[in-house]
Amino acid sequence: MNLRHLRAIHAIWREGSFARAAESLGVVPSVLTETVRQLEEAAGLALFDRRLRPPRPTAPGLRYLEETRPLIESFDRALSHLRQSARLEHGSLAIGASPSAISGIVAPAIATFRKAYPSVTITLHDDIAERLAALVSEGTLDIAIAGRAGSSTDLLQTEISTDPFGLACRIDHPLAMKAGSIRLQDIDPDSLIHLDENTGTARLLSSHPSLPAAFHQGCLKAHSTIAQLCLIRAGVGVALLPREAVLLFNDTSIAFVRIEDLDLSRSLYIVRSAKRTISHIAERFIEFLTE
Fold first, then answer.
1. What pLDDT is attached to residue 279?
2. For the chain, which end, N or C, has fewer CB atoms within 10 Å of the first or last residue's CB respectively?
3. Which CATH superfamily is domain 164-264 in?
4. Which residues partner with 268 through β-bridges?
């Protein structure tokens, strides 16, 4: 006995006749009759009294129909949910993103995605690249958009954008008021606000060969880019940051100044698991990102 047999007897019960049941199931009456015969043979008794018009379930048959009705309804409900998921009528998506990737890349993709699939629940988690990569690897996040994490066979990392490093400073800072670009020698190393060494930005700067040693570390540190920008806005200091990070809040009081002799860029990647198939919802969102 299988689902086909159950659907056959429930269709007869619902429609009140073998002919209408066969039509509702899209089969010829002889096929339906044979399906019921197989089930009755396996059960060892008749499920319908065919002497009556319309045929009615026998007492054991009615009990069996009532006991199996929740199975049919549960299966149909699960199948409906599955089809809704395929059409992205519901479901969930957990995205990770570096703060500086949100405004210019992730937020526009989310806005467009929500117009197309408004019933999908989206959760956005912001953090540094290494922690986001760990969350993707363990399955907490479907994907992440961040700087490159440490090399791992658990992850696939696809580059989607690059932006150059420059100086972030207040708009009224002397270096912001210079025409054109500046040079590294124009920057006072003691005025730099450094990032936590675990961040991708800090690692890029520390490994860059043309950056003077005095620029690698200092007495003023911030845990995140957001904290850096808050300090810069308050006039506490300046920082070396990628352009998109400087423009994180579109704050007109903070300027991005090009550094002529600093040839350094930060890349952003779509980070996904290499060992786990991502959901069709995440696949569709990636298409929005890359478009």
1. 86
2. C
3. Periplasmic binding protein-like II (3.40.190.10)
4. 161
